[in-house]
Amino acid sequence: MDFNVKRLAADAGTFLSRAVQFTEEKLGQAEKTELDAHLENLLVRAENTKQWTERIMKQTEVLLQPNPNVRLEEFVYEKLEKKVPTRMNNHELLGQSMIDSGNEFGPGTAYGNALIKCGETEKQIGGAEREFIQSSAINFLTPFRNFLEGDFKTILKERKLLQVKRLDLDAAKTRLKKARMADARAVAEQELRMTQSEFDRQAEITRLLLEGVSSTHAHHLRCLNDFVEAQTTYYAQCYQYMVDLQKQLGSFPSSFSNNNQSSVSGGASISVPTIPVSASLPSVSAGHGSSAASGGFNELRSSNGSRKARVLYDYDAASSSELSLLADEVITVSSVPGMDSDWLMGERGNQKGKVPITYLELLN
Hints:
By secondary structure, the chain is an alpha+beta fold. Helix content is 63%, strand content 7%. The termini are far apart.
């Protein structure tokens, strides 16, 4: 019982000391230990990453689902951990209406047949849209959301703890300045050493977490590549579906009989544009994007040789095993057995370290 009382009293004293220190700092009556410039820059970068990640996520959600009521409904179902009811999208609804009306007018009539063909194409586009939304949600939105709800919350927690340790350190400095008796000074000096050690340790923990934001940027860049590839696939599919439909409608006679009415001449025919259509459409890869560039990296890894590469973006090394990069510089890269497929070994003069392949462009 006495121990608990003493513990509560000590906690209350510590809290009061922090409150007094914080208040005096705000009033300009106490000095404040400033964080080093590198740590301050890392904090600013992390906060900017959080804000822009939130904004990109919000606008992507609006793009994928423009209806705010449906977005709200999906959000509620997600929080309740329930499956969102399956519903037809706008293309599928339009397609079904066209098919139903075409059957009503008669599949044997030109107009009815054309409506059915248009409806089937609209439903194909609706299916492609559904696949695009699903792919984007898994490969783009989910990693962004995981950063905000996971890594960044951890950063916030450790940053708040750093603020607490900083207040304890400055309060200890204040007590040492006010100590007059030798015994009091000895106790204050010991307390200052302890709080300084705790502050330094927490600052290092926070710094390591903040430097991990560089890896987050590299991961989000891969996710962005996946998103662009999903869009490319979706729009290519839609274009191919519409070109095929246009060719079918263009084959309809310009003069036809409809619903036992007299023939109408001079009907407008639909011309097919002479735009070359690729024989094959890109498919959504299960990995991180398949392109000529990725093929070059695969060849490099299999050959165990080295190549020159141009740096696309600045990159701050997250650890001593990595190499910091500057945009537009040219470095030598090579593959090391057992290294993660997203990384290569980079060399610049006497400097050597791991570099992310998403920041590189191989040169011939």
